[in-house]
Amino acid sequence: MFKFGKTEVKTKTKVLVIDDEASFTRMVKLNLEDMGTYEVETLNESSKTLEMVQTFEPDIVLLDVVMPEFDGGDVATTLRSRSATKDTPIIFLSAMVSQAESHLGFYQSGGEHFLAKPVLTETLCGAIQTVLAT
Amino acid sequence: MKFLSPSLNKLPENPRKLLLLSEDRSEEPLLRKYLEADQALNYQLFHYSDLEQLKFIDLETFCHAALVDLRNGYTGAQAAIEWIESLRSPVALICLCDDHKQLLNYDSVAHLIDDYILFDNLKQEELTTRIGQAIRRHGKKRQLLHEQDLLHSLLHNVPDAIYFKDRQCKFTKVSKAMAHDYGYEPKNIIGKSDFDLFTEEHARPTYNDEQEIIRTGEPIIGKLEKETFEDGSVNWVTSTKIALRDAHKRIIGTMGISRNVTDLKNTQDKLAEEHQLLQTILNNLPDRIFVKDREGRYILSNKHHMRFLGVEKEKEVIGTTLYDHLPKEYADKPFKEDLEIMRRGIGLINTEEKIENPDGTTTWYLTSKVPLLDESQQCFGVVGISRDVSIQKENEKKLRETIQVLNETQLQLIEAEKLKTVGRLAAGVAHEVKNPLNVVTLGAEYLENKITEPAELAEIVRDMKQAIEKANSVIFELLDYSSPHDVRMVPMDVNELINQVVALLRHNFSKAGIEVRKELDSKLPDIQGDAAKLEQVFVNLFLNAINAMRKGGILEIRTYSERMKNAGSNVSSQMSELFRVGDKIVIIEVADTGTGIDNKTAEKLFDPFFSTKSTGEGTGLGLSVARSIVDMHRGAISLGNRGDVKGARATINFQAVSNENV
Question: Is the ipTM value over 0.90, yes or no?
Answer without folding.
Answer: no
